[in-house]
Amino acid sequence: MASSAMAQGFGGFTAPMPSFSSSNRLQLGFCKHSPEWKRSSIMIRLDASFSQYSNSRKRASKLVTNAMVVKDETATSPATSNIGHELLLFEALREGLDEEMERDPRVCIMGEDVGHYGGSYKVSKGMAEKYGDLRVLDTPIAENSFTGMGVGAAMTGLRPIIEGMNMGFLLLAFNQISNNCGMLHYTSGGQFTIPVVIRGPGGVGRQLGAEHSQRLESYFQSVPGLQMVACSTPYNAKGLMKAAIRSENPVILFEHVLLYNLKEKIPDEEYVCCLEEAEMVRPGADITILTYSRMRYHVMQAAKTLVNKGYDPEIIDIRSLKPFDLHTIGNSIKKTHRVLIVEECMRTGGIGASLRAAIIENFWDYLDAPIMCLSSQDVPTPYAGTLEDWTVVQPPQIVSAVEQLCQ
Fold first, then answer.
1. pLDDT tens digits for range 204-257
2. 256 noted as active-site residue
3. Is 143 noted as a catalytic residue in this protein?
4. Can you give the pTM of this predicted structure?
5. Active-site residue among 185, 212, 298, 327?
């Protein structure tokens, strides 16, 4: 277990729920894409035996700190057939929550106004009436207290979902998230697992001011034992939510405040996304553009201009902020030999900086140009709308960066 703590910052990681596999030989990237099972391997393989509602100790067999990811199949994107139903992103999150609460009586929700008010963005609307006040628990305005309560509930066998009314408020619970949530599996010698999901709105909104425009990915990425994912569409929002709830690891699910009203048709049948897998948004040949969350749409907007100018960008939504899907990323780099990272996170110590370091370490020989990273400026987000836009990467900047890299 000591070696487990040192590999890739996964001090508290254990194997996923048995619903992902019936075999004792498991891979963290094993997931279900309806209607077929899809398999992808990441850096860590685990041997474990399970009882469905067990909170027993799991042992990692072997860790390879710089191993390459190997996949048996390529993940599929959302079904493009006419079968399905349209949902807004916040409704897709709610549907995923509802399905998992109905499937597993251990799943519960806690946070400020998550009950009868339905959550600050209505993700848990109707849940209190359906499941009762004990499973959908309204808490006082005390993030450190109810986050710690959630960690303790997970130690006893529950599967809590902790909502931050705004992700910036979770800084008040940083000790509980880092020292407890991320490390208790390791510091207890494997006696406890912490199957907690921490979720809520974040990112730069519409004139929400500096304190409500936080991007906490950079804060939490260095905490051992935490897994981080960012949803960007209704399809992956539901799939990642379900996967996070079923995971035995503490997962932080980042939702962008400006994407809640995004609408998309999603399948009627059940599906679960891989927590460790990136999404190929647009295949291309000239340059690899890596992005996530809201910046996916800025990149797609820029891609229209780039295509008209004769460029063929490959766009990847990395989705998994920790760990990175180096299989998908590496295969793309080997094809295009150029990389542009676009993020809304801060430039200093952000996700882009970590991703660039990983690319240099693993794929240096395949690069024909320096890696360029477009990030938000290292300033508090202004309230004024025009100034707010200046602090965040805009599509024209992406077009200029691609033109520069492809000279």
1. 988 888 888 888 899 999 999 999 999 999 999 999 999 999 999 999 999 999
2. no
3. yes
4. 0.80
5. 212
